[in-house]
Amino acid sequence: MKAVRDGDIPFDGSVEESLDMCLGCRACEPACPAGVEYGHLLENARGVIQREKKKSTKEKFVRTVTFDHLFQEPKKMEKAVTLMQFYQRSGLQTITRKMNILSFFPNILEEMEGVLPRVESRELMRGGIYRSKKNDIKVAFFTGCLMETIFSKTNEATVELLRGFGCEVWVPENQVCCGALHGHSGELKKAKENARKNIDNFVARDVDYIVNNAGGCGAFLSEYELLLKDEPEYLEKAKQVSEKSIDITSLLFRLGITDFPLNHRNNKKISVTYQDSCHLRNVNHVIDKPRKILGAISNVEYKELKGADHCCGSAGIYNLIHSEMSMKILDDRMENVKEINPHIIVTTNPGCLLQMKLGIERAGLSKEMEALHLVDFINDYVSIKN
Q1: Which tens digit of pLDDT belongs to each residue from 215-247?
Q2: CA gyration radius for the chain?
Q3: Rounded to whole angstroms, what are the CA distances from 118 to 82, 113, 114, 261, 274?
Q4: 326-333: which pairs have CB atoms within 8 A and are 24 or more residues apart?
């Protein structure tokens, strides 16, 4: 990767093939005694590849739609999700499934269509301040692109949780995608564009924390300082954003959520496990806090999942590009899930959440268990007396 980045070896198809097989989970970083930043080397190498390679018409089209539009302009993402809502509610989805139309497409697309959550009609958070009774702590909330459209219920629950713990929550109006998907795919120029837009928005008010509820987004936000290290006019502001960025589980833990009585609402004993978000674990080093929160809930038996510290195979869009390898990783993970047979698999990243939902379906366990974001699990199942 370093040789490609520095131009010491020529780029060819074999280099791209080798690097594309990497999940980008960055588990190599905490394992490396020398502290090599493999994630940044990978992004830079992929940047060289995208600059040097001759792209097919299909790849140019996909990259333009994805990186220049959907994940660059929030309104276009919202329109795409509105179309998905129409597909789900108009009867078109039912017809498509009955006629088995999706069988003409790659298997992974048919499987992913089956686990996509039903898009609810909700007023999206377009900015504003959500006050609490105390307003002791001022936080900015990074809504994310997928979280704010497909998982808007989780965003609403996140804001309500923060308000319940005395936070005044500010949602910057013109925030955009964090840029993680761009950066991981070698589109570093576009990643930096998004970073600059977000930085300008998030430094407009003085806050104690910048909160996110998506592990991949949080990791990228925390590394804005590194991303823009060669831009003196943004470096100090990028540093502020990086230093104030925190994931929702870490902030809830810091606010003392485990000090309050956490009761399972149905008083029925259930078993829960946790699948790590790779970037939350390997980049931001958040490992114990989600587990401690789950373990503090009465009538909840926490079961550690073997291999939870390894990637589930989602890895951004890896499960779409390298679906065969991704599904092998996922099926292996589900064998470990079967050993402990939990009622609920909890995670903290939208890609991981969809992947675990897919794993449950592939394993034929949809009647026995479900996958939830940690925030939704707390919101739906836990009573907090604070």
Answers
A1: 999 999 999 999 999 999 999 999 999 999 999
A2: 21
A3: 11, 10, 10, 32, 23
A4: 326/108, 326/355, 327/108, 327/362, 330/355, 330/358, 330/359, 330/362, 331/359, 331/362, 331/363, 332/307, 333/275, 333/307, 333/359
